[in-house]
Specification:
Structural class: alpha/beta
Shape: globular
Number of helices: 6
CATH architecture: Alpha-Beta Complex
Low-confidence stretches: none
Helix content: 25-40%
Mean pLDDT: 93
CATH topology: Spore Coat Polysaccharide Biosynthesis Protein SpsA, Chain A
Order of helices and strands: EHEEHEEHEEHEEEHHEE
CATH class: Alpha Beta
Number of domains: 1
Length: 229
Amino acid sequence: MKLLVVMKFWSNTVPCSDRLRNVNYNYPQMIGLGNFLKEQGIDCDIKLYEFSQTPFLADSIHKPFPDGCYKRSEKINVILKESSNYDYIFLLDCDTFFHVNDYPKVLSLLQQVKKHQIYTFDLAKIDEATTVRLVSQEQFNIFDVDWWFAYSGPKSLGAFANGTVGGLGGVFICDLELLKNIDGFDETYVNWGGEDGDALNRILTQIPSAKLLPQREFYPFHLCHPPVQ
């Protein structure tokens, strides 16, 4: 299996913005995870795509979009079209990261992955105060703080509680053949919301061999930022 570990970013146009702050914290976390996977025998590449009109990030693959343009579906499709030599994609939103304690769990998942599998993740959304503590490199146990899951709600319920499974949201791992077979994400979704559930629904309804595996044992963290449209 050849895996692409990739983060996507676009700014909210302000050089010192919260999203730029977040990616400057999370991109090194993704590099750390990717390097760990490589050391453990996973054949993977690590890439950062930036869709800001003017690039902010020196290491990024820059694909300019106008400022204020959401179009997440179109941006993901740009990545997909340039990833034909990979078998699987591990896509992370620029506001997300996996804690180092969970790297072995990510590894175990990838060591067991099979054709046409999809892994979805609930996001542990931390507040602004905790985000500031993290990015300022304060030493504390993030598992001791409170958060709100993107799909489940309160931390006490756990990830993907009550049978929720999520869509192809902020973080997912997917067989690229599945995404190719549905022609990628639907680009008629130009504002926030809907495109991730639509893509997953089309995979599961059009490709009988597709298997959805929502991960409830562990989850990525999501740094705080105002809504982006």
